[in-house]
Amino acid sequence: MYAQISRVQIQPGKMDEAIGIFADSVLPLVRQQKGFKTVYLFVDRSTDKVVVTNIWETEADVAALLESGFYQEQVAKFASIFASPPERGVYEVAAVA
């Protein structure tokens, strides 16, 4: 399994809007992607920071998100509420409890 982890700073006062866009617009689409396993949305309201962790079956499944433009399309939905572009990384899941 592989994890795609994105970290982003949200503009002050926009956290509820970000959560709503994620739940209503992003989740339904990401669930349909090949290899998708699960996703977690972590928020720190005191600092307006968000961490999104998606779990995928293979590294190729994660790579397909960028190659297809899917990741970029989802990020674009948040452009007006991001304080800065997201930082993205891909990691092999080495252990699960």
Can you tell me about this structure?
The chain is α+β, with helices and mostly antiparallel strands and 97 residues long. It is 34% helix and 32% strand. It has three helices and four strands. The chain has helices at residues 15-30, 59-68, 70-76; strands at residues 2-9, 36-44, 49-56, 87-92. A four-stranded antiparallel β-sheet has the order 2-3-1-4. β2 (36-44) and β3 (49-56) form a beta hairpin. It is globular. The mean pLDDT is 95.
The major pleated sheet works out as: 4 strands, antiparallel
Low-confidence runs of at least 5 consecutive residues: none
Q: Distance between the terminal alpha carbons, to the nearest Å? A: 14 Å
Query: How would you describe the oligomerization state of the chains in this entry?
Result: single chain
Helix content: 25-40%
What value does the average pLDDT take?
A: 95
Shape: globular
The portion of residues forming beta strands comes to 25-35%
